[in-house]
UniProtKB/TrEMBL annotation:
This is Amidase domain-containing protein. Residues 24-464 form the Amidase domain. GO terms for cellular component: endomembrane system. It comes from the Bacteria. Pfam families: Amidase (PF01425). NCBIfam families: PRK06170.1.
Length: 483
């Protein structure tokens, strides 16, 4: 049997039945990587010897009667996670030789669940791009079109899944870093509710792996099916055992509904600050039509929706206030001078980025207060709706663009150019208030590229968008291997 593109859930069943061994699955994945990854470049740090040893251990454990959620399943891990004995660089050349001594908490959870870790997947420099390339490991290509990006910053993980290099991967998301690569590569991803999954050890090189509460950023699962997302999220979810984990366990509420016809879904395909490309709009409408055909209640307008323009501006300011926090003082002062020169009437996202970079603590608190008002608005919306269906970015995967000045880059939306980072407005819709969001494939563009959409759900009700994703997968189909 061909195991390469089988779901993790299917592989667990096959392993339990004795139809295949973990050693066989691991050798199969390694053979495929050695054959195909030269042109995709998803696996930047292979760990094949230890993977083979872990696979043998998993097979031995199974013969003893052990059964764990991922026992013997082959997975990959984003390069930014610490794995003892392997380099953690975040793509930064000055750290190419940095090797942590301890696994990140999520790597420990993978191992405790019995997973076999094949190695690490590629990322952009400092995780700060919508593409995945760096001086150490080179460029990760989209398996559907090698001239295009796989996305970022979890682009290596998405490309690995699309190419059949393991059944699952773990990534992270601050600016769509799980969702955009999944959309570009035609796979599934889930951005958990902020704080649901412990992040310790997903930390820049040489920084201490402390159990800190991050603003905006989360760690989360990637897979080739919706049910596999839930399987991996159940392994990842839970507070850090060094802090809240001493007193609390996590029990996520069940999905609000089990039948597609019971869901109430708000559909958005227009943003006040950025147009949606025709291919992505078609993907949103394809899923919306499937919801209607399945009996769901679908609306396209509601007075309960928080202001999208203010949401994007708030998100931009909060995001970029963190991105320059460790800049040298002289660079920071140059940014402050540029920000002070802005017209008070300039309310563009470019201006929001610049103002965010020099946000004072006082102004950050005010922005955070506005965020809390948005969170309350979402609570009111989710009293009437179960999920929001919307784009992730305005276009399918775009051609590689390695212009070192990211602020000079442009994104082409149906023949018109816009500032590169403006495409983050849809990712920020869920990130700014900390909401869960599940990415599902929604078919192919006229040019043959994958198009994904996101299903945003209520805070800490992650099982609701995950269940909706599963039901939609049954109706419209899901992952398909690149041609």
């Amino acid at each position: 049997m061909e195991w390469t593109f089988q779901s993790a859930e299917g592989l667990v069943a096959a392993l339990r039945a004795g139809d295949v061994t973990s050693a066989e699955l691991t050798d199969d994945a390694i053979t495929r990587i050695e054959r195909d990854d030269r042109v995709i470049n998803a696996i930047c740090v292979p760990d094949f010897d230890r993977a083979r040893a872990a696979a043998r251990d998993a097979d031995t454990a199974r013969t003893r009667g052990e059964d764990r959620p991922l026992l013997g399943v082959v997975v990959t891990v984003k390069e930014s996670y610490n794995i003892a004995g392997l380099p953690t660089t975040w793509g930064m050349p000055q750290y190419r030789d940095y090797v942590p001594a301890e696994d990140a908490v999520q790597v420990s959870r993978l191992r405790a669940a019995g997973a076999v870790v094949l190695g690490k997947t590629n990322v952009p420099l400092g995780l700060q791009d919508i593409q995945s390339f760096n001086e150490i490991y080179g460029t990760t290509n989209n398996p559907w079109d090698h001239a295009r990006t796989s996305g970022g910053s979890s682009g290596g993980s998405a490309a690995a899944l699309a190419a059949g290099f393991g059944a699952l991967s773990v990534g992270s998301d601050l600016a769509g870093s799980l969702r955009t690569p999944a959309h570009f590569c035609g796979v599934y991803a889930h951005k958990p509710t902020l704080g649901l999954a412990a992040n310790r050890g997903m930390v820049p090189p040489t920084m201490p792996a402390l159990p800190v509460d991050l603003d905006l950023a989360v760690v989360g699962p990637m897979a080739r099916t919706a049910r596999d997302l839930t399987l991996l999220l159940d392994v990842m979810a839970g507070p850090d055992p060094l802090t809240l984990g001493k007193a609390h366990d996590v029990t996520l509420p069940p999905a609000r509904h089990e039948r597609l016809g019971d869901f109430r879904v708000l559909v958005l395909d227009e943003h006040p600050l950025l147009p949606t490309g025709s291919a992505v709009r078609a993907g949103v409408n394809r899923v919306a039509d499937a919801l209607v055909e399945g009996g769901a209640r679908v609306e396209r307008h509601t007075a309960l929706l928080p202001d999208l323009a203010e949401a994007a501006t708030l998100y931009t300011r909060l995001l970029f206030s963190g991105s320059v926090a460790r800049f040298p003082v002289d660079a920071y002062e140059r940014l402050r001078t540029r920000a002070d020169a802005l017209s008070a009437h300039d309310q563009s996202l470019d201006a929001a980025r610049l103002r965010g970079m020099v946000l004072s603590h006082r102004d950050w608190i005010e922005a955070n207060n506005r965020r809390e008002l948005h969170r309350h608005g979402w609570r009111q919306l989710f009293a009437e709706f179960d999920a929001v269906l919307c784009p992730i970015t305005p276009t399918p995967a775009f051609p590689h663009d390695h212009n070192p000045d990211l602020l000079e880059r442009r994104i082409d939306i149906d023949g018109v150019e816009y500032p590169y980072f403006d495409q983050l407005v849809w990712a920020g819709l869920a990130t700014m208030p900390g909401l869960p969001a599940t990415v599902i494939p929604a078919g192919l563009s006229p040019g043959g590229l994958p198009v994904g959409v996101q299903l945003i759900g209520p805070m800490f009700e992650d099982r609701t968008p995950l269940r909706l994703a599963e039901l939609l997968e049954q109706r419209i189909g899901g992952f398909r291997a690149p041609r």
